[in-house]
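Journal club prep — side note

Before the paper discussion, L.F. wants everyone to see what a predicted structure for a comparable chain looks like in token form. Sequence:
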Amino acid sequence: MYYRKTSDFIRALVALVLLYTILFTACSCNMSGSETRSSWTSSSVKSVVSEAIDREMEFVKPNLEPDLQASIENGGAKGTGMTGRQIVDLTEREQGGSGYIDFCYTVNVDGSADSRTVMENARPLMSESRFSELESQAAEIEKAFEEAALSYSKALPESQKEAFFKDLKSLVTRTVVLLTAGIVYAVIPDVILWGKVSAAAAISIGAGLVALTIMTIYEKYKFGMSEEEQKRSLKDWLNQLIQVPKADFALTTAAGTLATVFAEGPVVKGITICVFAFTNCLETVSTMMKKYNFNM
């Protein structure tokens, strides 16, 4: 009897020790994995945003407030300009600064195809009422595009229709991303300094995506025109393009959204125009906006 009790006690003790060991090992692994994953993710985000700031700086810096420009130009080692990584590190130290880093990262990674992800990432950076306005506008744009008439212009070959409307939908998506970036910058609190640079870089990225799409549409779809026909003015080309109901709506939407972006302030407008000019898209956008009675 004594032997049996002792044996049962030892087995129970061994089982408890094994259970404790398994649980402790699992928790340790999970904690270690979590820390490693978190550290890796943070490092990756910082690297991507640092590179984005360096890449977009030529468009961003000339449009920032003079004091911030001077800090960037003289804040580096031995009076040289600051690097994107230095700016990211300074942004991270600001209250809420990591939110602007994450937002810039999301625009850089998802801005070409997913406006919803970009909007959700912007949500903590603005008031709920402002976000609701953005959400309503984006939903209206996307719903209207999906429900637009399906009649097409005879000028567009059947073989090009699917790709053409994918490009137009991309234009709508990317203008929503640019609008979101513009609003994020417009509502940055005065106490935030370095976060403005990350937010400005997001505007530049968004503007570049829009410019690329507009130029793609203009260059790719000339409806099988002859060489002589292709020499006609952009206004004439737009007049033919808007015979397509969805195309008309998409271009009107893009022009209206760009006008809204410009209204968000001189920094937003300045960066966007700089990017458009660099991509040779400025004339195209200017003509498009005049066509639809929007002012730059």
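L.F.'s comment for the group: Confidence is low (pLDDT under 50) at residues 13-40, 149-153. Keep this in mind when we get to the figures.
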